[in-house]
């Protein structure tokens, strides 16, 4: 599955267009490498996202095309979620 689509389906980022923009600004890494929106992600991959003062790191637990919003958190395991000090 494409990275931008996974970010949207998993509700890590709410809109696919925003997910693509974040990738285009090189704010997303997959397995330690800067990733483009079209990067293919699989179960077990580690995604790191930098959004302003916030850094999020997750491991993909499952890849699915669609999922109810209430179950979206089941698609990934949160490794880190912190805000940088100002």
TrEMBL record:
Belongs to the RqcP family. SMART domains: S4. It comes from Desulfotruncus arcticus DSM 17038. Residues 1-65 form the RNA-binding S4 domain. Keywords: Protein biosynthesis, RNA-binding, rRNA-binding, Stress response, tRNA-binding. Gene3D superfamilies: RNA-binding S4 domain. GO terms for molecular function: ribosomal large subunit binding; rRNA binding; tRNA binding. Key component of the ribosome quality control system (RQC), a ribosome-associated complex that mediates the extraction of incompletely synthesized nascent chains from stalled ribosomes and their subsequent degradation. RqcH recruits Ala-charged tRNA, and with RqcP directs the elongation of stalled nascent chains on 50S ribosomal subunits, leading to non-templated C-terminal alanine extensions (Ala tail). The Ala tail promotes nascent chain degradation. RqcP is associated with the translocation-like movement of the peptidyl-tRNA from the A-site into the P-site. It holds the Pfam family S4. The keyword Glycoprotein does not apply. This is RQC P-site tRNA stabilizing factor. The gene is rqcP. GO terms for biological process: rescue of stalled ribosome. Associates with stalled 50S ribosomal subunits. Binds to RqcH, 23S rRNA and the P-site tRNA. Does not require RqcH for association with 50S subunits.
